Amino acid sequence: ACLGAGNYGAVCQAVDISSGEQVAVKRVPRGHCSEMAVKDETSILRELSGSAPHRNIIGLKGVYADAGAWYIVMELARGRELYERLVTQGMLTQAQARAVLHQLACAVAHLHAHATVHADIKPENVLLHEEEEDNAAASAEQRCGDGGSGSSGGSGLSVKLVDFGSAFRVGTGPPKRKEWSYTAVYSPPEVVAGTAEASAAGDVWALGVVAYILLLGVHPFDPSGDTCEAEVLRRVVSAEPDYDDPAWDLIDAGAKDLVQGALNKDPALRPTAAQLLAHPWVAAAAAACTE
Q1: Is 26 annotated as a binding residue?
Q2: Is 40 annotated in the active site?
Q3: Cα 70 → chain centroid
Q4: Are residues 161 and 46 in the same domain?
Q5: How far is it, in rounded angstroms, from Cα 210 to Cα 189?
Q6: Quick one: 118 and 134 in the same domain?
Q7: Sorted alphabetically, which keywords does the UniProt record give (predicted)?
């Protein structure tokens, strides 16, 4: 069964014939990207699955190749794309949005602590699992409060960050330029304007865009949903989101503060992912599962 498509190839469900385990396999045709790009992606995933695993980051099982393609074998995560959930069922509650953002901030802070930038954070690259049908024993395994274990915060939701096709390690090789990173409308203004390269601060910007979407149900620079990409990118560089929208009156002031910080035009003034994780509004999601 086809589960979706990443930056360079389709992802399908398969079975490991040696163990019977269900897995996800990303097939990357050799003509779609360079061998170096595949090695970069799998090297990052291998580290994150081995010496630095995290419950909110997809795990790598192995890498294989034949004459026509590379095959990246990953854990089969439960759930569906966050984007699909929003389109088919509408907005999350504030408590659910906070739990999702807490787990994403956990994952991204973990990446940055290991000198890795994701560079393509968006709802399509977040798998969301709603745990209402899980049994109580599985729910009891949820842990919170440590940097390596982003919990559901009592929300019944768990997330995994996927698709590391644009990810890179900080300080290795040439800087990552815009055409190698980000989906355009999640790109930070410094990358759109060409004044800076992709960076950890760009991941924080993308988290801010995702947060805005989760809380208000619209893109901060395309609230109508039908603006052309060029105009959206112009707004990313030179306009501010509508923080006077009456919809904000129904949202916790702490959530608005978090979004405004993450969407600061100046990357030097944005909080780090670790600071987002410690933000009182986000941190309350971790506290919720201990009450």
Answers
A1: yes
A2: no
A3: 24
A4: no
A5: 15
A6: yes
A7: ATP-binding, Kinase, Nucleotide-binding, Serine/threonine-protein kinase, Transferase
